[in-house]
């Protein structure tokens, strides 16, 4: 899985209180500066699940794209049952095990990953992008579709390509970025080993004609495909 030991509580805490303590400890390990080399392959990460699913399944996908053409060269998926109940702010513990299983299936690992979800723009500084980045020790960027904490300040203009700081409690925790005119913005934040400016630059570079950057867009499609395949598989 990784070349360093991963404590059990980082992935499978026994209860929500333990999970919150683990998040605080993990958040202290997040590297908020650029700490990576040349990026030849870009990754995209996403999950699909239904909080009301009685089986509590998580459908995870990781895609690998070539640069500069952003062509998908490999896809891996996995299904796991969430051990942690659905608790806002603790969703990483439900989703990370399935993502790690998908990651392990990749023949070639990406040099940097865009994760559908928050990085440090989280109440305890550890959204799923930061959580995954620290556990795998890979450069990671959070690309979320909605705000968990904070607010854009000043307000974000409607024009495509505009951006504004995402602030919370007087601290900048990310950037609100509008990739298409009048479309809902994306919220970019540091995951691990990537500065905020670099994170935004990579999201811009990886975004074409869609609202979402191509890595997370393809990961979203792949996670849904895993879900459909599981629904059609014999039980």
Description:
This protein has one domain: archaeoglobus fulgidus dsm 4304 fold (2-Layer Sandwich). Helix content is 28%, strand content 26%. The longest helix is centred in the last third of the chain and has 19 residues. It is globular.
Question: Low-confidence segments, ≥5 residues, pLDDT <50?
Answer: none
Strand order of the largest sheet: 3-2-1-4-5-9-8-7-6
Which descriptor suits the 3D outline? globular
CATH C-level name? Alpha Beta
Number of domains: 1
Relative strand content: 25-35%
Return the string of H and E elements: HEEEHEHEEEEEHH
Tell me the name of the CATH homologous superfamily.
Answer: archaeoglobus fulgidus dsm 4304 superfamily
Q: Could you tell me how far the N terminus lies from the C terminus, measured between alpha carbons in angstroms?
A: 28 Å
Over the alpha carbons, how many angstroms does the gyration radius reach? 17 Å
* Helicity range: 25-40%
Counting DSSP E segments of at least 2 residues, the number of strands comes to 9
CATH architecture: 2-Layer Sandwich
Main β sheet profile = 9 strands, mixed
What is the overall number of helices?
5
At a glance:
This protein has 235 residues and is an alpha+beta fold. It has one domain: archaeoglobus fulgidus dsm 4304 superfamily (archaeoglobus fulgidus dsm 4304 fold). The protein contains five helices and nine strands, in the order H-E-E-E-H-E-H-E-E-E-E-E-H-H.
């Amino acid at each position: 899985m990784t070349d360093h030991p991963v404590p059990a509580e980082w992935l499978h805490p026994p209860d929500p209180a333990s999970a919150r303590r683990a998040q605080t400890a993990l958040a202290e390990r997040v590297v908020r500066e650029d700490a990576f080399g040349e990026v030849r392959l870009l990754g995209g990460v996403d999950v699909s699940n239904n909080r009301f699913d009685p089986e509590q399944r998580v459908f995870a996908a990781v895609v690998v794209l070539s640069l500069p053409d952003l062509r998908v060269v490999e896809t891996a998926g996995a299904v796991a049952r969430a051990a942690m109940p659905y608790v806002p702010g603790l969703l990483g513990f439900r989703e990370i095990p399935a993502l790690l299983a998908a990651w392990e299936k990749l023949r070639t690992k990406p040099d940097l990953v865009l994760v559908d979800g928050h990085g440090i723009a989280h109440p305890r500084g550890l959204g799923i992008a930061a959580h995954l980045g620290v556990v795998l020790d890979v450069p990671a960027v959070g690309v979320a579709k909605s705000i968990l904490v904070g607010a854009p300040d000043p307000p974000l203009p409607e024009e495509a390509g505009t951006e504004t700081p995402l602030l919370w409690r007087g601290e900048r925790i990310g950037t609100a970025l509008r990739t298409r005119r009048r479309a809902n913005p994306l919220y970019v934040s540091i995951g691990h080993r990537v500065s905020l400016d670099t994170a935004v630059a990579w999201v811009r570079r990886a975004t074409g004609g869609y609202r979402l950057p191509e890595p997370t867009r393809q990961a979203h499609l792949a996670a849904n495909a895993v879900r459909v395949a599981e629904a059609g598989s014999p039980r």
